[in-house]
Design goal:
With 148 residues, the chain is an alpha/beta fold. Helices cover 50% and strands 18% of the residues. It contains 5 helices and 4 strands. The protein has a 4-stranded mixed sheet with strand order 1-2-4-3, sandwiched between helices. Helix 1 packs across helix 4. The longest helix has 18 residues. The protein starts with 6 loop residues before the first strand and ends in an 8-residue tail after the last helix.
């Protein structure tokens, strides 16, 4: 396992999540872009949990696929929390006609891009972020499946 110091992966769902694959994916992004992790929690959560987080902290009373909280004071040493909802990701995978594993991979990458400072508000920024996501999804596919 390529465990990354200070990256903690938690799973409250019934899915078997490969923490080592998650670590390897983040390692690829980290090595290519160049950042360090002070402390990041990546949480795979149920629809109920993500709805509670979304409602409490963002004022949105619905389930979403990913929420990223960046607590960093520095632009290249990250501290934050990430919440990913596999149930919503599974629904989105069907809508976008991609595999469930690729959708989870994209969300992991998407969340870290937010920590790095990428923004997906607005059409142009969303397109730019999607191109970078696509790049890392393809680059990390050979590492293995996140969902066992």
């Amino acid at each position: 396992m390529v465990a990354m110091k200070n990256l903690y992966v938690f799973n409250e769902t019934d899915l078997l999540i490969s923490k080592s694959i998650v670590h390897k994916i983040i390692s690829v992004i980290k090595n290519e872009i160049g950042f360090s992790i002070f402390s990041v929690e990546l949480n795979f959560v149920t629809k109920d949990t993500i709805t509670q987080v979304n409602t409490k902290f963002l004022g949105h009373k619905y389930a979403t696929d990913v929420i990223t909280f960046n607590y960093s004071d520095e632009s290249n040493n990250f501290e934050g929390e990430i919440f990913i909802c596999p149930a919503v990701a599974k629904e989105n995978a069907k809508i976008f006609k991609v595999s469930f594993d690729d959708e989870i991979r994209r969300l992991v990458i998407h969340a870290f891009l937010h920590l790095i400072g990428y923004d997906d508000r607005g059409k142009k920024k969303k397109q730019e972020m999607k191109l970078i996501e696509d790049y890392f999804v393809l680059k990390t596919k050979k590492i293995g499946r996140i969902i066992k």
